[in-house]
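so the lab meeting is tmrw and i was supposed to have these ready like two days ago... anyway. pasting both below. for each one the top line is the aa sequence and the line under it is the structure tokens. i havent really looked at them closely yet so no promises
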Amino acid sequence: MATQFLTPDTADTQFKDDGAITRQRYRFSASVNGAGDWVILPPEIGDVVVSVAPSSGTARIEYTLSSVADVEAGTAVARNWPDGDVAGYTDSLISNSVTAIRCVSTAATDFVVTA
């Protein structure tokens, strides 16, 4: 299974242009249909906000507490977010005590992670 990494938001011009802004923002977005790739969270960031916006059908966020090696090997144990399967736009704050998160959907879904 493929993995992605939550990376710095290179479009964050406020961080780049204003020396007073010392915190880099992170952003990942994808259109998912089925089980999306795991997005590994960097350990140095705080909590993350995740959102799903299914075009039809349902979507949910899954997270794992498994090791990065297990995520990369495709053997991570997935757990569902408390909102379960949702049919419309939903967002949630997830603690960065998790290793990785992903979106699982039954139809095309916009999936966004920000920190």
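ok protien two:
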Amino acid sequence: MLFRSVVYEPAADAPVVEPRAEGCAVEIVQDGLTSSRASQTLGHIRMEWSTEQMRTQGHDGAVKSLKAAACERGAHLVLGLRVLPRTPDPGAVYDADLAVLIDEAGKPLQPKSMATTMP
């Protein structure tokens, strides 16, 4: 049985942002590392993958799904990504915060301004 559960909790002070286009550029920052880009947290995401999904799609498939979920929520960054074992059914849990890039005034970057910001 394939299992994919995505739980998203918006931050209390999260700015309102529009979903981004499918396949948008999303930077992944592993737990313990930081991004040099100015950003604001949108919320927390937790995605569970079954053993079968890990076997057939692997870590790359999970990251692709995580990036798609980030785009749907308007995020540019996945911050503090941790990959944890899933119990009792072995698999993996992908746990992180989603964030949006902000300009000098602290406002979320809009899609039109992204052409010069993201490669």
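from a quick look at the 2nd one: The first strand starts at residue 4 and ends at 10. Helices lie at 51-72. will dig more after coffe
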